Amino acid sequence: MELPVQTFRVTRADLVRYAGASGDFNPIHWSERFATKVGLPGVIAHGMYTMALVGRAVTAWAGSADAVVDFSVRFSRPVPVPDDDEGTELEVRGVVKGQTEAGLTQIDVTATCRGEKVLSQARALVRRPA
Amino acid sequence: MPLDPSFAGRSYPPTASYQVGREKIREFATAIGAADDLHHDPEAARAAGYADVVAPPTFAVVITMAANRQIVDDPELGVDYRRVVHGDQRFEYTRPIVAGDELVSTNTIEEIRSRGGHDFLTMRTDVASASGDLVVTAWSKLVVRGEG
């Protein structure tokens, strides 16, 4: 079963706020100069910020904020975030794959940015909505 | 220089306990745009059976990333952090993290592999409550890019 597509806008301000809240101050997430020096296309989103947005999508699908029991992703491609008001957009799709023996629902997730997959093997096990 | 695969299986002493603050959960939830009352309103959390506000699913990384410095900064292992990118991440929860928790992390190097000139370091962090009950296990795979 396919779940409703969810989209999230990501701007530089979001990355700065996430850096402060998470304690991840790696300069590739806020300094264009540093990011390009280490061979990146520019400032990129924290992988864990992308995962957090996917977590929001999953909890919205599950219908409760405490539903996630198991959550895994592979970061397959960076999410570049330009220094403008629009930033970029993350599109998150989910498919219900079925139930585990423990009664959890497995959701397989696809996350794309500008048409390219930025996660692979993204999967969550959630408690069935009450 | 590639990472020494004989470090696989090595465990580190438990970290100092991390006190989960209500405002920290709110700050993190706000930063990721998670507006649900469970993350912000203690009354709503209590009505759902929790002692205080509930952390979003990836909040554990605040604790485990700091705890992982034990491994990443281990001079004997010698990870060049400037070359590190995040490969994989997984969380397996026994229960959600809640404000007021005092959590202790125990790090283990689960796997070290080298492929195509890059090193792959898989760290497991078991996060337990003050009473010793496992709350969440996190696996983080870091890719240390080769110098080539």
TrEMBL record, chain A:
<dbReference type="InterPro" id="IPR002539">
    <property type="entry name" value="MaoC-like_dom"/>
</dbReference>
<feature type="domain" description="MaoC-like">
    <location>
        <begin position="7"/>
        <end position="104"/>
    </location>
</feature>
<protein>
    <submittedName>
        <fullName>MaoC family dehydratase</fullName>
    </submittedName>
</protein>
<comment type="similarity">
    <text>Belongs to the enoyl-CoA hydratase/isomerase family.</text>
</comment>
<dbReference type="InterPro" id="IPR029069">
    <property type="entry name" value="HotDog_dom_sf"/>
</dbReference>
<dbReference type="InterPro" id="IPR003965">
    <property type="entry name" value="Fatty_acid_synthase"/>
</dbReference>
<dbReference type="Pfam" id="PF01575">
    <property type="entry name" value="MaoC_dehydratas"/>
</dbReference>
From TrEMBL, chain B:
<comment type="similarity">
    <text>Belongs to the UPF0336 family.</text>
</comment>
<dbReference type="Pfam" id="PF13452">
    <property type="entry name" value="FAS1_DH_region"/>
</dbReference>
<dbReference type="InterPro" id="IPR039569">
    <property type="entry name" value="FAS1-like_DH_region"/>
</dbReference>
<protein>
    <recommendedName>
        <fullName>UPF0336 protein Pa4123_31390</fullName>
    </recommendedName>
</protein>
<feature type="domain" description="FAS1-like dehydratase">
    <location>
        <begin position="7"/>
        <end position="137"/>
    </location>
</feature>
<dbReference type="InterPro" id="IPR029069">
    <property type="entry name" value="HotDog_dom_sf"/>
</dbReference>
<dbReference type="InterPro" id="IPR050965">
    <property type="entry name" value="UPF0336/Enoyl-CoA_hydratase"/>
</dbReference>
<dbReference type="InterPro" id="IPR016709">
    <property type="entry name" value="HadA-like"/>
</dbReference>
